[in-house]
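hiii, so i know i said id send this last week but things got crazy w the move. better late than never?? heres the sequnce for the chain we talked about at the cafe, plus the structure i predicted for it. fair warning i was half asleep when i ran it
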Amino acid sequence: MTKTIGLIVGSLRKASYNRMVAQTLSELDASIAFKWIELKELPLFNEDLEAGDGPEAVQVFKAAIQAVDGVIIVSPEYNSGIPGVLKNAIDWASRPSRSSVLRRKPFGLIGATPGGMGTVHAQLQTRHILESVQAQVLPFQKLLISQVHTKVDAEQHRLTDEKTKEYLQAYLQKFVHWIDHVPTLD
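okay and structure toks below
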């Protein structure tokens, strides 16, 4: 059965390296349907805005997460941490806590940065936050792309490094396989 994977990019920048990585990911396997889940329209989290059904952009965002079999977040690291726009999105999606669209949803984490350490700090923080809201995060797997600026064609907005594409392909296969084997605890 075809899987539908949501892609969330933790950067709003037009020429985001992480968007280039996510675009490449979406082209690696024609048997998987990919759905872009955008963050740019989400307001800053504010409980006062939750009245009724909440803002329309939040409703659209939550529905997009609900509609997919799993979500892969492809995100940079800012100041050794999770980008604010991504944290804001997770905060919105985590509400209401008992019926959050994040509960038991499979997530994968990938990150790219021009720096030398990949996105290790941001991924650890994102994993911690997702697990605290009872999302299921692919265990024992990290895809940290360092010095990404040397692995892309910036003019064409494309990832060009073949070794990195191989890592992405392997990660994607593990994630899709894992979705069918995620243990559910009640």
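btw The two ends are 26 Å apart (CA to CA). thought thatd interest u
miss u guys!!
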